[in-house]
Specification:
Blueprint lengths: L33 H6 L13
EC number: 5.6.2.3
Protein name: ATP-dependent DNA helicase
Keywords: ATP-binding, DNA damage, DNA recombination, DNA repair, Helicase, Hydrolase, Nucleotide-binding
Length: about 50
């Protein structure tokens, strides 16, 4: 079986498209405070630093 993508990069080097209003689509954090929810959002994630 051949290896697809580059596993050393985020998402294996594949192009990912994120869309939507990130202020309206918040993550679900069970019993989380407002601060917990904000810190779980995509634009505060390590993934965001690798986005263009």
């Amino acid at each position: 079986m051949s290896k697809k993508g580059n596993s050393s990069k985020i998402f294996g080097g594949k192009v990912m498209v994120f869309g939507g209003d990130f202020r309206q689509i918040l993550p679900v954090v069970p019993r989380g405070s407002r601060s917990d929810i904000i810190h779980a959002s995509l634009n505060l994630s390590y993934i965001w630093d690798h986005s263009q």
